[in-house]
Amino acid sequence: MVFVALGASLSGGACDPEKTGSTFGKPSPTGSTVEGSVFFDRAPASGVLVKIGVESRLTDASGAFRFDGVSASYDLVVEDEPGSFIVLPALAQRFVNVPVQRPAQAGAWEVTLRGELEQPLAPGRELTFLLSGDGVRSIDGPLDRLTVRYGPDFVARARVHAVETEATAPGAFPGKYLSYGEAEVVMTAGAQIPFRLKLEPVRDTREVDLAPVMPVGFALESAVVMYDLGGGITRRTLLATYGLPARVTLPLIPGFFTTRIAMRRGDETADSGIVLVGDSPVSFVVQPPASLAAPAPGAVVDADTSFAVSSPGGVYEHELEPAGGQGPRVRVVTDQASVRVPWRAIGRVPPQDAKYTWRVRRLGTLRSMIDYGLVGLHNDAAQSLSAKREIVMRVPSAGGT
Asked: Is 64's pLDDT higher than 50?
């Protein structure tokens, strides 16, 4: 799966010619350059197919692409996997960032960190590790052989953070936080990097109340609080609760804490997105899924069909999946209430009379396609998913859009 996000200057609009597009800036002159980059999280992704009109490019080793002579309005298409497309229709801006959800193919390095403690752990205690720094991807393993993946720089500076907790059963959430320590390391790919940790006791805690407002009819699925050093990859679950409102006790250690609430009503889901745990109580609203307005269940869909929602606000990802596995998978991203699928720009159409499912992911805390383009904001946004609706595709192979 791939999601596409835009740089802060990007605007998006609906494909429906009877509706005005995004109001973010005026179109650039006809025939100018469009350029940008494709990346996974914060690392460049190479070899990703990007299309504008009849032209296509594979991103280079730095994740970059460039098109010359592009019209004032264009459709951007990314094919992350064979037969899987994401489309941002009717763009006008000249710079586009394209984050993808598949792993990066370039710019990844690996290093082993070999740590030791100034004082050994007492029985029944364990350590959890996080890593902060530019380009950090992951950290795994025990203290004396921590495997770290990072990139794109060959040499990078980072900080190891360790928290001591009461030991728990495998797969369980961390126990009571007891101590904390950190150490700076300079990573060079392939090297064995030693470091020492001094753990200081956690002396102070604070109590925080979680008080979300949930949509009517939804039942709580999970509520987690995470120790967070920013960037998502250095986020670890601290505790979970299965009843709300709830009061949680948090240690006062460097870094901060975030929470995310998820719930369900039948096939519909909704969550709060990542919310900073600040002053108590933490009160936030979980937004409901978008209401599917048109096409109706079982409707025959052609190239002129508009897909519309009736819930205002946010950014919408219209997900079209072949029910029988035959045909392209398409996701159309827009901040408009109605959008058409630009099949000509995609270059693939479903088999005639193929059954498809349509559902909409609503990113309710994003105000526009500009917000959608900010790095890391997509995954952390409040996300709700509508129930699936079955439709029938009847899109001509030529002259369709």
From this structure: yes
With a CB cutoff of 8 Å and minimum separation 6, the contacts of 58 are 46, 47, 48, 49, 50, 65
Q: Give the contacts of 82 (CB within 8 A, at least 6 positions apart).
A: none
pLDDT of residue 3: 39
| Highest mean predicted confidence (pLDDT) among 100-104, 244-248, 307-311, 370-374 | 307-311
Residue 342 has pLDDT above 80, yes or no: yes
Determine contact, residues 95/35, Cβ cutoff 8 Å.
yes
Residue 67 CA to residue 220 CA, distance in Å, equals 47
Higher pLDDT, 320 or 165: 320
Question: CA 361, CA 90: separation in Å to the nearest integer?
Answer: 20
> What is the Cα–Cα distance from 327 to 350, expressed in whole angstroms?
5
Nearest Cα neighbor of 359 from 401, 380, 326, 330 is 330
Q: Where are the beta strands (DSSP E) in 71-108?
A: 74-81, 84-91, 95-100
**Eight-state DSSP code of residue 91:** E
**Angstrom distance (rounded) from CA 153 to CA 136:** 10
pTM of the model: 0.80
Q: Which two tokens stand for residue 341?
A: 């699928």
Distance CA 364, CA 288 (A): 9
Task: State the pLDDT at residue 30.
Answer: 56
The amino acid sitting at 190 is G
Residue 7 burial (CB count, 10 A): 17
